[in-house]
From TrEMBL:
Residues 68-132 form the Acyl-CoA dehydrogenase/oxidase N-terminal domain. InterPro entries: Acyl-CoA_DH_C, Acyl-CoA_Oxase/DH_mid-dom_sf, AcylCo_DH-like_C, AcylCoA_DH/ox_N, AcylCoA_DH/ox_N_sf, AcylCoA_DH/oxidase_NM_dom_sf. GO terms for biological process: L-leucine catabolic process. This is Thermophilic desulfurizing enzyme family protein. It comes from the Eukaryota. PANTHER family: ACYL-COA DEHYDROGENASE, ISOVALERYL-COA DEHYDROGENASE, MITOCHONDRIAL-RELATED. Keywords: Flavoprotein, Oxidoreductase. GO terms for molecular function: 3-methylbutanoyl-CoA dehydrogenase activity; flavin adenine dinucleotide binding.
């Protein structure tokens, strides 16, 4: 069932309990045909062949998204059109092997692509985080949340049965495939599997109405008797019905979480950079100089405190970007080094994870500071709903609560003081 809330109201000596559901009706979707001209252009050009070409493609997509991002945030329609544009642009293929029709780029490039798209629209910048199937150009949503233990998996002979509930399912409503995750009955082991989204057993609750990331369609989903062949259980042996230790030993298995954590960091960074760019255009065009400061200027762009704030924000974003790029190189290098023999040492994995943790801390702090601080240099009229400057802060504030950054600070403290590298967990 959908999340609900109850309220007790005393009436004439009696208590009446009113229960209200947060579930909303299935939302309207944006129309993919609005981007027809761009679809044709991207398809005609084909996939970029260089790293700079991929970044240029990401910037082009971000520019398209930025034009009406504020209006789309207000309308809150499922971004069917925008996902279609991500597909036709080829951005979902950037990391895929070239032999399967992908871009063949490293995570270092992938992180920068995410950052660029997030500048245009934070909600849509999060969507390329999803896995994709290269040849079919499929978009994958994720019903994966290790804190939810409401999805059970049972053995039914030649297949598994997934049954239960997930509070969050990022991009599920607009996906081709959904990755399910749950606990295998009678064990502590988790099983992941890709399934077709369009099936009766996957029932979206359409209850995503949060303060930020409104277009990610990350609401809850009910999973009812979804059957998955044992051969589709990722990392599991079809013979022993146990986790395949050879598969679990590959770098991707132990590096998956820091890899994704760095995705988040670049996502935050891109949103903050987008907010500063948006604010600077607004300040130049619409902000009025303050007439009671004692050192009055005719233009806001001549005022000391406005120039000082923009300079300070820019410096911190530039520092965060440099750190994010360094961490991205660390991740890309370790994949490149160990991709052949499929092993990675605890120390090297931990060192890379601490670069990621450092980036997560800095981008979280900086993005929250910048996306809130830009209002100081734009003025009260910039808080207007149709202006849309608030969407940057709302998106960052929403996702930075994904896992408390305070624990990343503690983790780094242990690394500095005790030379202790983090053990792999769901969030490290």
């Amino acid at each position: 069932m959908a999340p609900s809330s109850t309220q007790e109201i005393p009436i004439s000596g009696h208590t009446v309990v009113i229960e209200s559901s947060n579930k909303r009706k299935k939302p309207d979707s944006s129309d993919p045909t609005i981007y027809d001209a761009y679809h044709k252009h991207f398809v005609s050009d084909g996939l970029p062949s260089t790293t700079e070409g991929w970044l240029s493609r990401a910037r082009a997509v971000a520019e398209i998204f930025s034009v009406d991002a504020a209006a789309r945030d207000i309308e809150n329609k499922s971004p069917k059109a925008e996902v279609a544009l991500l597909k036709s642009s080829g951005l979902l293929k950037v990391l895929g092997p070239k032999e399967y029709g992908g871009g063949g780029e490293t995570w270092e490039t992938g992180y920068k692509v995410i950052r660029e798209v997030a500048k245009g629209d934070g909600s849509l910048g999060m969507l390329p985080l999803a896995e994709n199937f290269i040849e079919g150009n499929l978009f994958v949503g994720g019903a994966v949340n290790p804190r939810d233990n409401d999805l059970s998996i049972t053995d039914a002979g030649d297949h598994l049965v997934f049954d239960g509930f997930k509070n969050f399912n990022t991009g599920g409503v607009i996906s081709d495939l959904t990755v399910l995750e749950g606990v295998y009955a009678g064990t502590e082991h988790h099983i992941f599997a890709f399934v077709r989204t369009d099936q009766p057993g996957i029932q979206f609750q359409y209850n995503w109405n949060n303060v930020g990331l409104r277009l990610t369609e990350s609401g809850s989903v009910k999973i009812s008797q979804v059957q998955v062949p044992w051969s589709d259980a990722l990392g599991w042996s079809t013979i022993t019905r146990l986790p395949d230790l050879k598969v679990l030993a590959i770098p991707f298995a132990s590096l998956l979480l820091p890899t994704i954590q760095l995705v988040f960091s670049n996502f935050y960074l891109g949103i903050a950079q987008g907010s500063l760019d948006f604010a600077s255009k607004y300040t130049t065009k619409s902000t009025r100089a303050w007439p009671f400061g004692g050192d009055n200027k005719e233009k806001p762009t001549e005022e000391f405190y406005i120039l000082e704030r923009y300079g300070n924000f820019f410096a911190h974003l530039r520092a965060a970007e440099t750190l994010a790029d360094r961490a991205g190189k660390e991740i890309a290098d370790i994949y490149g080094k160990y991709g052949a023999n499929r092993k990675v040492t605890e120390r090297e994995r931990g060192e890379a994870a601490e670069w990621v943790a450092s980036t997560k801390i800095v981008t979280t702090d900086t993005a929250l500071r910048v996306t809130a601080g830009v209002f100081e240099v734009t003025g009260s009229r910039a808080t207007g709903k149709t202006v849309g400057l608030d969407r940057f802060w709302r998106d960052v504030r929403t996702h930075t609560l994904h896992d408390p950054v305070a624990y990343k600070n503690r983790e780094l403290g242990e690394y500095v003081l005790l030379d202790r590298v983090p053990e792999p967990t769901w969030y490290t």
